[in-house]
Design a protein that fits this description.
Layout lengths: L11 E10 L8 E9 L4 E9 L10 E6 L6 E4 L2 E4 L5 H26 L1
Antiparallel strand pairs: 1-2, 2-3, 3-4, 4-5, 5-6
Length: 115
């Protein structure tokens, strides 16, 4: 149970707080997922990120990310931000992990070309 309202605002609970540290060939990279829900179970805050400082020097190494901080939904890619249409958290998480897999395929192809 999340409790009762405080100062007119519903309480929220962080329900996902995962960090996966990646091994070779992406040593030093990580995937992060954070999700907060309100007492009705609605996702009210989220952050998804693929961080790899070896690939992206900007934005604290965030290669790809999605979040709704600053009161709007936006996508981070290689140091740049752009808004996107939010169609629900489950759809977004699927989109994010599909994009990460595509990035990894591209990274692996580049690695093969240079070795």
């Amino acid at each position: 149970m999340l409790g009762t309202k405080r100062a007119g605002r519903p309480l929220v609970q962080k329900v996902v707080d995962d960090t996966i540290y990646l091994k070779r060939p992406r040593r030093g990279a990580r995937l992060k997922e954070e999700v907060w829900r309100n007492q009705d179970g609605q996702v009210i805050k989220y952050s998804l990120a693929y961080i790899n400082p070896a690939i992206c020097g900007a934005d604290n190494g965030r290669v790809l990310g999605y979040d709704n901080s600053h009161d709007h939904h936006h996508r981070h890619f290689m140091g740049k931000q752009q808004p996107f249409e939010f169609a629900g958290y489950e759809a977004l998480a699927k989109r994010f992990y599909n994009e990460v897999r595509e990035l990894w395929r591209s990274e692996d192809e580049e690695r093969r070309k240079t070795h």
